[in-house]
Design brief:
- Two copies of one chain form a homodimer.
- With about 270 residues, chain A is an alpha+beta fold.
- Chain A folds into three domains: about 35 residues, no CATH class; about 110 residues, Aminopeptidase (3-Layer(aba) Sandwich), CATH 3.40.630; about 110 residues, Alpha-Beta Plaits.
- Chain A contains eight helices and twelve strands.
- In chain A, the strands form three sheets. In chain A, strands 1, 2, 10, 11 and 12 form a five-stranded mixed β-sheet that branches. In chain A, strands 3, 5, 6, 8 and 9 form a five-stranded antiparallel β-sheet that branches.
- In chain A, helix 4 packs antiparallel against helix 5 and helix 6 crosses helix 8.
- At the A-B interface, strand 4, helix 4, strand 5, strand 6 and strand 7 of A face strand 4, helix 4, strand 5, strand 6 and strand 7 of B.
């Protein structure tokens, strides 16, 4: 499966300090030797805080998940020529920032063109050599593009590559668009999505159908079993943070929908 | 003098790894205890490779220096809010890059407005927390603006501050424009500049009058004695680099101009 990694590939992944998954698992004593094998599952559900602000803003209790956004991660490398900030006339420079600024702005336009679900994020950037009075010879920008429609995500990918080529070539800058990860769009099982929807309606909770912007365990479970997810609101969409907060009554609603969706699927004879 | 640092201030300057001038001088055994005192100087000349491409491009042998560009260094800090790259709708984000892209583009426009001597350089940039799938909560950008006319450099400073405020405020981003250094414009002594010019002409070298884009020892010497500088071409303007290269005949020309300018000033009774 394209979205899964081979064991050795997973072990070799390094963070920006060079620490690998394999070595760190060993260090903390969690590098086991049991094979991961598929177990028979009739269906799977996952309940989660939204990690985004949509339900809270719309004052809804339940998100009925139809799938998970696809994403593409890139390391964009722009190569210019280092030169001294003072003596070098602007028109003689091959300055990576001269392309980076319109590329970043162009990616935001791309996300806006495919609103409301298009996303463009620049999580990190590095200038080399990174000296205050030197035009950088290289910029490395982390680019994250997302959309829940696979075809549109492909269009965003193509438009991004064109944008980079155009902005760099006209300034005689070198460039590499290194795609580091492509997480394809996940579409959840219609019967599982239907079970979440009818449980929500039967329990009288307000809801909307939506897709997840973040990856989840269900992304992988969906490759081996019929799957859907349930979202509940969280304050300001903040997660993975000490100020993460969700209301007890929303958590209760999520658990109730989970229970009733499972009961419905359990009695469904179409699924084995 | 505004351009000079107090001793303790100079010792305390740290690089981005936190190493200070004082500690590093101590470490290599160069932290002496002699006071720096002005010595009587009738005049001073400095000959240097251009560190820029202008003389080479115009096929000239000598640059007659009338002064040194002023510069202003800033740490531009843009504060947003960290959030997850997937679930957070674009319009809910407070993403520092959304202001940084037009600010960088706007600074290049500012340099172009005051061409050919206006300069804008972004030597380094840092995103915090710097995680691939998180909108940064903070961007720190090193900005370097230069111009040889003090009044225009002041206009560039004001326009830069306005640009930052406008782009950040409309996106509800916080910002700080921390000026870390202001090196005022240096105008060299007219008699010293004249001595360089007449030595160049008398020796039959091709030349142009120009200002230095980089700071030099003469920047400080000019505060205690009549001063000028002589530039010779260097290949592609590259300096502080192993491929730095200047032609022997150009170095000879520079030395000849230096000698004859000194002889002329030595016989000048107006200067004591």
């Amino acid at each position: 499966m394209e979205r899964c990694l081979e064991l050795e590939q997973a072990y070799a992944i390094a963070d920006k300090n060079g620490k690998t998954v394999g070595a760190e698992l060993g260090r903390i004593g969690y590098k086991g030797d049991l094979a991961a094998s598929a177990r028979p599952l009739k269906a799977a559900f996952e309940v989660h805080i939204e990690q985004g602000p949509i339900l809270e803003q719309q004052d809804l209790q339940i998100g009925v998940l139809s799938g998970i956004q696809g994403l593409r991660w890139y390391d964009l490398v722009i190569d210019g020529e280092a030169c001294h900030a003072g003596p070098t006339p602007m028109e003689s420079r091959r300055d990576p920032f001269m392309a980076a600024a319109p590329i970043i702005a162009g990616c935001y336009e791309l996300a806006a063109r495919y609103a409301p679900w298009g996303r463009a994020t620049f999580g990190d950037i590095r200038a080399e050599p990174g000296s205050r009075n030197t035009v950088p010879e290289r910029l490395i920008v982390n680019v994250d593009l997302r959309h829940p429609d696979a075809e549109i995500l492909d269009q965003m990918d193509a438009a991004f590559r064109e944008l980079v080529a155009r902005e760099c070539q006209q300034r005689e800058l070198g460039f590499q668009v290194n795609e580091t990860w492509h997480m394809p769009v996940t579409t959840f099982d219609p019967q599982c999505v239907g079970a979440v929807k009818s449980a929500t309606d039967n329990l009288g909770y307000t809801s909307m159908e939506m897709v997840s912007g973040a990856g989840h365990d269900s992304l992988y479970i969906a490759t081996v079993a019929p799957t859907s997810m349930i979202f509940v609101p969280c304050e300001n969409g903040i997660s993975h943070n000490e100020i993460e907060n969700a209301k007890p009554e929303d958590l209760e609603a999520g658990c109730n929908v989970l229970l009733h969706a499972m009961l419905e699927i359990d009695s469904n004879e179409d699924l084995k």
